Amino acid sequence: MNIVVQTYTAELLSVLQLWVMKAPEEAIHNGLSQLVYTSYSAPNDGIFIDAWKNISHGLGSNGHPEAIWIVIKHCSRIMKGQLKLTNELLDQGTEKSEHEVYMIVVKRLSPLLILRTFSQQTYQSVSLPKSIRNHVNWTSLYIDPEKVKWENDDDNDNESKHLALSKDLFEELLLRTQDAAEFQENQALAKTLLTYIYCL
Questions:
Q1: Residues with pLDDT less than 70, the chain
Q2: Neighbour tally for 22: CB within 10 Å
């Protein structure tokens, strides 16, 4: 990509920040939902990460507290249904199997990269239910449970819905840190996100 195209692309993507700041909430939620799936369908296209970076800056400056929950919901949904690497596939050693391995790895990476584009401040309302505290090996994650953002005792119905989404994402990230077949870089990013999203 030459300098002229790069400059044009950067200017075009910067419009996304303005869109996020000006668009009505419903349009933002619909747009974010579609972009999660469009990004996932083309995991090799780095332009989508640039798009997410611009969107995250816009969200951070304008404050759409529900927007991050749209991203969490759809990223978690994708992560739950993803194909996993298997020893059988890894051992085949054919050109076809190597391509399949590559596509599984980059697709499993895609939602993690999306989640990483947002600032920690964007996740300030994301907490975990206290019920899981004694069921997680925090030491293996290098996380102090005292620094985890736990639910408030006065959670309302809307926050209960958010807690369920938060727990879903936490479990999917946790699985990626524990699966021996998970690509090492994906494991590392999942572990980083656990601290990044859920800790003070």
A1: 1-12, 60-63, 154-158
A2: 11
**What pTM was estimated for this model as a whole?**
0.90
Compute CA 134 distance to the chain's CA centroid, rounded to the nearest angstrom: 25
Q: What is the DSSP code (8-state) at residue 136? A: S
In Å, what is the CA distance from 27 to each residue of 60, 86, 96, 137, 172? 17, 39, 40, 40, 28
Q: What is the pLDDT of residue 160?
A: 86
**Cβ neighbours for 44, distance < 8 A, ≥ 6 positions apart:** 106
Distances (CA, A) of 104 to 24, 86, 91, 107, 175: 35, 10, 15, 5, 16
Cα gap 95→107, rounded to integer Å: 18
